[in-house]
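U., I forgot to send this yesterday:
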Amino acid sequence: MNQDKFIQNILKMETEGERKYTFMLCLRSARNLVGSNLETGKCEYNNIYNIEKGLYHSHMFTGLINYLIFLEIIGTIFKPKGRREEKQKNGIYKSLYYFSDLTIEEITVVRSLRNAFAHNFGLAIKNDEDNKFTHKFTLSFEGDVDDIVSIPVEKWNGHFDDKRESSFTKIYVYNLIKLIEKVYQNIITCAEKNELEISLTGGEKELNTRFSIV
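Result:
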């Protein structure tokens, strides 16, 4: 099987035998946790506001983490043919740079959100080496806006006594999830046109070893 067909198959979960690719399992898990359709990714969200025993019924935090991990993995593995490899090695940066219309500033925000979630399971991240990665986030579940992120004029300075809501970076959760699903569809379209390649140094062997289970 040539690489083009191999890529198309794994992105559509049309694999032979028992081998499953972890990034596709991650996507389905994310869809399940946030209440989206498992096959299409269409938004069918559960009630995120009901809390029982201190847990969100929709598992929205965990679902968002899975979506962001998915975004990071596919940016690590794939890139469009003919495009130079980005010096920026972060997978979220590359997936959004290659397959979305977000600005560099917006991409940096999404990357920082992933770090806040994955490292602290929280909504604040402080980076003493590079202030652009320092954010205090608020999650919005509004459905009548077009934005994915809203960056304040005067961003949080990393001081924990700064409680100003005006310094929060706002994430529109529904729109972020839709964006990640669109990135996935853009990658599939690219693969169907035979315009996608594996960017891992070890190619298919590395992909199978690092990102699949049997």
